[in-house]
Amino acid sequence: MRPPARLQAAIEVLDGVLAAARDGGAAADSILQAYLRSRRFIGAKDRAAIRDLVWAAIRHSGERPVSGRAALLGYLLASAPEALSSFDGSDHAPHPVEEGEPQTPATAAPAWLLPVLEARFGNDLPQALAALSARAPLDIRVNRLTGMTRAQVAARLPCAAEPVHVAGLTLADALRLPAGTRLEGHPLRKTGAIEVQDAGSQAVVELAGARPGMAVVDLCAGAGGKSLALASALGGAGRILATDTDRSRLAALAPRARRAGALGMIETRLLDPGREATQLADWAGQADVVLIDAPCSGTGTWRRNPELRWRLTPFRLERLWALQARLLRLGAALVRPGGRLIYAVCSVLDSEGPDIIRAWHRETGIAPARTLALSPHIHGCDGFFIATFEMPC
């Protein structure tokens, strides 16, 4: 595959990512994988080159570009202008660059969001944006249910791995590997001994305080990453109800739970939006722990999912606030007297974290026992806001 063909392939992928960002479609990595899967003639080196071009162009711009071509041109002009000679209009190549055509400038965040981020980070804004734009390391969690220790796992990994500490929390099962480490197909992953999970997410589960024998609800379980971590914390003794309104994401949990040795501990329940309280009536006031990993802007995960910057709008953010407040009320009703409620968002926006909790306090009189705001530039993990509540007896 010639370099011009690689550029054209990257443009086509970027056009797909932009369409998905506009219409609420699949994530960028899924679009890229589907593109390459449908073109099996593309060799390994070409695939890697296309992948690098796509992600570099996405990271280049916080604003949604007008086209995949504009995104790639902006990145190349800033970082590799010599590549523009490959826009030559030959077979499978991009057509030549025209004078005045759109070229996306380098930005770290959408312009409308910058004042909000400045209010959050103050003088640390440049460092915070740099960290949110950088490539993330690879964090994994050792699954206690397989009987392997962290030291045993570290000895079998393909590169050096370090323990992880976050904001004074000791994450006993966490290991950090260099950015770009690939574990697809590794025996430890195939056998369920490890799960890829950011240290911030592991901190959420640590603060949940799940212990053997407890009954736990993971209210927004998605594909079940935190449900599996909770099962590991329960040590095989206890039960977990994992719920979500997204059928496809929740369906991914069962095979993961089977591989991790947690299938018998986890019940999944698909919920209908607006009817969740009725469908969870049997758990009302019964759970020792309820975890609400609420849908959010995902601003804390930009380093892993930089195309999320292209999806976020003020209108979508307002809709998320209403959903987050509703989920807090729903989750609180499931906690037994004296139990624990955990609210978490992978966001660095105050409006999705402290502001939601202050409104909840005004509404219920229940103050958080602890809050924790995590930022990549300080804590080295994804951005999170976490609040824990000890519910009154």
Describe the structure.
The structure is a single chain. The protein has 17 helices and eleven strands. The protein has two domains: 3-107; 210-390, Vaccinia Virus protein VP39 (Rossmann fold, 3-Layer(aba) Sandwich), CATH 3.40.50.150. It has 393 residues and is an alpha/beta fold.
Please count the helical segments. Answer: 17
CATH topology of the largest domain: Rossmann fold
**Unreliable runs:** none
Mean pLDDT over the full residue set:
95
CATH superfamily of the largest domain: Vaccinia Virus protein VP39
What percent strand?
15-25%
Give the strand tally: 11
Q: Number of domains in the coordinates?
A: 2
Radius of gyration: 22 Å
Order of helices and strands: HHHHHHEHEEHEHEHEHHEHEHHEHEHE
Distance between the termini: 67 Å
Q: What is the overall shape?
A: globular
**In this structure, how is the largest beta sheet organized?**
7 strands, mixed
Structural class: alpha/beta
Level-2 CATH architecture of the largest domain: 3-Layer(aba) Sandwich
Percent helix: 40-55%
